[in-house]
Here is the input.
Amino acid sequence: RFIMNSEEFRIHGKEMVDFVADFWDGLRQRQPLPDVKPGYISEFVPKHPPTEPEEWETIFKDLEPAVMRGNTYWHHPHFFAYFPTACSYPAIMADILSGGLAGIGFTWVILNSVLRGILLPMITT
Here is the structure.
């Protein structure tokens, strides 16, 4: 069963876009490397899986203390990455579209517009 209907998706999707935009705007204020001990995430994970889905608000509240706290930020100005990674707002929007369409592109007939509009010109030029 879906735990979110389309109206909730619109509301919470906008919250997530704001979260990501705020992350990029405030990246310089974060530590580039995490200051956590291995296994720290276990304090946020229940000993037994839930029998019912959690509310989005509960999950969203866990992002900062559970998820963001344990990351290495490769795009931080004080992290000298092993290799550059590409990330941009247009790329994030493309990921939203790709995930939202849920097309599995293993054959040309599935995502024909991708093949014709993006891949074919790359192959033939």
Summary: The chain has four helices and no strands. The chain has a mean pLDDT of 85. Residues 88-125 form one domain.
